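User: Show me sequence and structure for the first protein, then do the same for the second.

Assistant: Starting with the first protein.
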Amino acid sequence: QLQLVESGGGLVQPGGFLRLSCAASGFTVSDYDMSWYRQAPGKERELVAVITRSFLTAGETTNYTDSVKGRFTISRDNAKNTVYLQMNILKPEDTAVYYCKAAVRRWSLWGQGTQVTVSS
């Protein structure tokens, strides 16, 4: 069964950190472009970070939306078939449901999401 399961969300104070995990089953994450999206209440879902398929380039390529550059890091552990999003210096505006996505060509798979709340 193809599945993505996110975990690691929670309540954190401004300036704090969290690490989100996205565990895949039924396929190999290194063969897909893996992304993190987020959706805040009343807003559209937005792309946060992406890590490309390993075989497309000599190494992996990562990209981030401007608002998280320098604070968030996306990474992949092929042995654990898991993708991570390390989030540092969290701000209240980072509050959202965070979703993991796997994609290649026209195929994509979403996880169920994990809530991140940044509040004092």
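Switching to the second protein now.
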Amino acid sequence: QVQLVESGGGLVQAGGSLRLSCAASGRTFSTYDMGWFRQAPGKEREFVAGISWSGGSTYYADSVKGRFTISRDNAKNTVYLQMNSLKPDDTAVYYCNRVRGSNSYGNYWGQGTQVTVSS
């Protein structure tokens, strides 16, 4: 069973950057496609970015394309989300999970990490 722990969130001004990390336990992590999701207050959880098990393929929601970059280090069992040019609309709790396409796949949700962007 894979367990996920997100970290790296915080308070940042608009235009700033943050790098989120998702540390996974379990030997099968390197075989999973992984993704980042976010949930803003009063809104449903939404897909942000995904990466194939090898790291060879990445894909993004239109709202973050060109600003966010997803990557992974299978040797460290970690997935990253580099967030640049942050906007107040990016404020949310960010989660990682296994994905199939842009959909979550399996109940591997961690506690999430809060990102707050001030204007």
